[in-house]
Predict the 3D structure of the following.
Amino acid sequence: MTALLVHEAALLPEPPGAPGDSSGRPARAVVMTMGALHEGHAALVRAARAEVGPYGQVVVTVFVNPLQFGPGEDLDRYPRTLDADVLLAGKEGADVVFAPARDEVYPGGEPQVRVSAGPMGERLEGTFRPGHFDGVLTVVAKLLHLTRPDVALYGQKDAQQLALITRMVRDLDFPVRIVGVPTVREPDGLARSSRNVYLSAPERTTALALSRALFAARDRAGAAAGGPRAALAAAERVLHDAGGATPPLELDYVALVDPADFTPVAADGAPYDGEAVLAVAARVGATRLIDNIRLTFGRTP
């Protein structure tokens, strides 16, 4: 199918719905992106179509949000491929691609009033990118208002972002349901990301240490002698070795955290029963990458 390209929220068509449909499916699903769509985004669009069914409407937003880029980050070189994005979105089941201009999202310039990410937004990614999540939540809030979805889908690769959006929607009573979609990986294990195109062949080889570290932790968590500390240690060993590669992996953090608030779990070695997120962020050359995996401790997943 071909997706309709729209630049103004006032022009978004109403979801057609199905006459007499009593399935209870949502009428409109939204997938928010910054463009440069890849298979990870395609999986989100397909999941959105499954949510609304054949009669609902899937909207994909494409907006490179300046508020979430810090000084020296890659705003200017971030890939912009709108024509290709519209084609991919339509092929995967989107009805509309909403690609607003900056003035549509931020009339009058950058907003003076913004959404605060609170304490969770200052942890992990927030430590290395101050103000990043305030920018993310502000644009997500704006786009939720502009697109008026019943359900919004986000990738689990950005686990902290997903947790913050879920919390914002709950705390501020947004009338929308948030759905997380599992991370899509390349055949070699690298998490799909629009920034992967920046990696040279040697850099990509080094970058594979991120997923190897996560998988090593998963294997250790499942072992009889495992547990949180053993899982984290297994990941740390892989990442430490990658620090000596050519080119080297420069680690920002690796942490095992509670998925609800991203505070550390079992840091004191105490037993831990439940789900945790093992999150990692690192630079390879000029490219910064993040990844994570969900682990379950204390019981069979």
